[in-house]
């Protein structure tokens, strides 16, 4: 039996406030082999492949079950009935559709919440793009996986070549939902274990104090040190989103990072800073002496790449100096700040605060007024080689992240088969000018390229 852990629970409560915690990916497929002579999408062929791989992703046939009060935290249980057609579906676009129409369709799909009455994932295919291309949009609830684990889950349905065929899946019989008595006994055992751990810590004050001292720098970074500047980027978000994608090359991004002693994530953060500078200047806001705070998740997974499971993210906050106009100098400053903060990544707490649902809910509600971050920026490693779904090659993949509270802009990059693709999710009402940000980010990546000479301004 698997109950949600404290970090999972913190990703569940935003749903109740109208901030769906759903992560996803938008891919472009070479769909020629998935279209029949009349141009209709062969959905049954794809469902056969997806169905044969479901044993590799058990969570895709499980429900999030919340027992009554006194029986403990929510847990994962097998769906007593499962219909793949409810999860793998088709939304034809009006051919020939362009990229703007595809992105708009994805946002329309995202407006519909995942239903808790069935497994929390969907995979949509959007045929109708020019050149027999097909869009594929997959989304899962964040309680199931973080970015790294989400990539691993998607990989379970993909193949390294176009010749792979579905294999017969073993028959599946759902396990019964645990009884109330069993849940009560399990909850009591967990509470007793938690109490023993508290007593143990009190009985070893020197060891406990040492642990507090080691984690204090990271805790201070998150909850104590300074506040994010006040800007128009932080206001209560609405229900409407816009999605923008930016294409990049991984080899060029790596060369940029190498030339400045930086990491890929530092290159992304520097380009984001450039985009924010132009965005806020366009809104007539001060940027010269402003350093915005970017929330950057840090993967704590210890599994091999492609085998990550669940949520194992830490967090750090990186200042983005908008007043530094030279791209190279700004990148080096950000790289130095990132390296320093990685030494004190904040890990999700397991103590009293994390175990108290009332306090958790209060913390989530406070996000609409939070001053710890201005934006969200993530960098997710993906497969280095081209992959195939039912014989169709994935030509491109873009991550899709949620935004919550008063954070109106979320940026994520995903590496895949030599690509370094970036997506921008914005609140449609708060960021109607998101195109300014996206274009500046794109231009910044080009300006940082080692193939383009630039002066090192002081």
Explain what this protein looks like in three dimensions:
This protein is an alpha+beta fold. The chain has helices at residues 6-10, 43-53, 99-110, 147-155, 180-203, 205-223, 250-259, 264-282, 327-341, 352-355, 357-365, 434-448; strands at residues 2-3, 22-30, 62-65, 75-78, 88-90, 121-127, 133-141, 241-246, 291-299, 313-321, 375-380, 388-389, 392-400, 409-416, 419-427. Strands 5-6-7-2-13-12 form a six-stranded mixed beta sheet, with helices on both faces. The longest helix is centred in the middle third of the chain and has 24 residues, at 180-203.
Mean pLDDT: 89
Element-level helix/strand string:
EHEHEEEHEEHHHEHHEEHHHEEEEEH
> What is the number of strand segments?
15
Radius of gyration: 23 Å
Mass-distribution shape? globular
- Quaternary status: single chain
Q: Low-confidence segments, ≥5 residues, pLDDT <50?
A: 453-458
Features:
single chain, 458 residues, alpha+beta, six-stranded mixed sheet, 21% strand, disordered C terminus
Summarize the structure.
The protein has 458 residues and is of the alpha+beta class. The chain contains 12 helices and 15 strands. It has helices at residues 6-10, 43-53, 99-110, 147-155, 180-203, 205-223, 250-259, 264-282, 327-341, 352-355, 357-365, 434-448; strands spanning 2-3, 22-30, 62-65, 75-78, 88-90, 121-127, 133-141, 241-246, 291-299, 313-321, 375-380, 388-389, 392-400, 409-416, 419-427.
């Amino acid at each position: 039996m698997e109950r949600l852990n404290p970090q999972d629970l913190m990703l569940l409560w935003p749903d109740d406030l109208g901030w769906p915690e759903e992560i996803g990916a938008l891919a472009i497929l070479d769909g020629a082999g998935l279209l029949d002579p009349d141009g209709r999408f062969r959905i049954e062929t794809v469902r056969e492949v997806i169905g044969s791989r479901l044993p590799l992703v058990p969570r895709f046939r499980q429900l999030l079950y919340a027992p009554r009060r006194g029986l403990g935290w929510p847990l994962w249980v097998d769906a007593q009935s499962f219909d793949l057609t409810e999860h793998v579906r088709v939304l034809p676009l009006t051919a020939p559709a362009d990229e703007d129409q595809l992105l708009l369709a994805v946002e329309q799909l995202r407006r519909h919440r995942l239903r808790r009455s069935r497994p929390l994932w969907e995979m949509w295919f959007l045929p109708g793009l020019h050149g027999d291309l097909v869009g594929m949009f997959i989304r899962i609830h964040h309680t199931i996986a973080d970015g790294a684990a989400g990539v691993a889950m998607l990989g379970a349905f993909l193949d390294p070549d176009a010749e792979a065929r579905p294999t017969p899946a073993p028959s599946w019989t759902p396990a019964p939902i645990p009884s109330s008595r069993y849940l009560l006994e399990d909850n009591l055992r967990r509470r007793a274990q938690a109490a023993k751990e508290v007593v143990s810590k009190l009985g070893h004050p020197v060891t406990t104090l040492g642990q507090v001292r080691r984690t204090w720098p990271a805790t201070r970074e998150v909850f104590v040190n300074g506040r994010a500047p006040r800007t128009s980027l932080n206001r209560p978000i609405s229900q409407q989103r816009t999605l923008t994608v930016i294409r990049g090359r991984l080899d060029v991004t790596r060369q940029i990072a190498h030339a400045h002693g930086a990491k890929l994530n530092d290159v992304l953060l520097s380009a984001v800073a450039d985009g924010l500078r132009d965005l806020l200047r366009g809104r007539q806001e001060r940027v010269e002496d402003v350093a915005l705070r970017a929330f950057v998740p840090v993967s704590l997974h210890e599994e091999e790449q492609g085998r990550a499971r669940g949520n194992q993210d830490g967090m750090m906050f990186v200042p983005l100096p908008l007043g530094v106009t030279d791209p190279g100098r700004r990148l080096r400053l950000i790289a130095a700040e990132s390296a320093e903060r990685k030494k004190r990544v904040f890990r999700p707490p397991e103590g009293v605060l994390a175990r108290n649902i009332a306090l958790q809910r209060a913390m989530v509600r406070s996000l609409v007024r939070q001053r710890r971050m201005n934006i969200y920026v993530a960098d997710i490693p993906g497969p280095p080689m081209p992959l195939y779904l039912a014989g169709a090659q994935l030509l491109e993949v873009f991550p899709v992240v949620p935004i919550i509270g008063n954070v109106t802009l979320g940026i994520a990059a995903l590496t895949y088969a030599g690509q370094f693709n970036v997506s921008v999710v914005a609140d449609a009402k708060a960021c109607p000018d998101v195109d300014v940000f996206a274009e500046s980010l794109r231009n910044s990546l080009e300006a940082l390229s080692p193939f383009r000479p630039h002066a090192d301004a002081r």
